[in-house]
Amino acid sequence: NYITRSMAEVFDCTPQQYLLYYRIDQAKLLLIKTDWPIAQIAQETGFKQTAHFSRLFANLVGLSPLRYRKKFTH
């Protein structure tokens, strides 16, 4: 409870949300810096299902992983 309250005060999110945002940020880097398939990036960032990763990524970023890659690598 203490960690959750402290993170809410400092980062305005729960520890679980913070971890999710961190994993999505790592996925953004991999999308730009590698030519790995989306499924591999999902796996490397801790997502078991590619479809779940793609949905979460799109909801948080506003673009699908593939569109994000195309937008920032051209």
Offer a quick outline of the entry.
This protein has five helices and no strands.
**Termini gap:** 45 Å
Largest sheet: none
Name the structural class: mainly alpha
Along the chain, the helix and strand elements come as HHHHH
Low-confidence stretches: none
**Count of beta strands:** 0
Mean pLDDT across the residues is 95
Question: Approximately how much beta-strand content do the residues carry?
Answer: under 5%
Radius of gyration: 14 Å
User: What coarse outline follows from CA principal-axis ratios?
Assistant: elongated
How helix-rich are the residues, as a percent range? Answer: over 70%
Q: How many individual helices?
A: 5
Walkthrough of the structure:
By secondary structure, this protein is mainly alpha-helical. The model has no long low-confidence stretch (mean pLDDT 95). The N and C termini lie far apart (45 Å). Helix 2 packs across helix 5 (65-73). The chain has helices at residues 2-11, 15-33, 38-44, 50-61, 65-73.
Task: Please tag this protein with its features.
single chain; 74 residues; mainly alpha; elongated
Give the topology:
Blueprint: H1 2-11, H2 15-33, H3 38-44, H4 50-61, H5 65-73
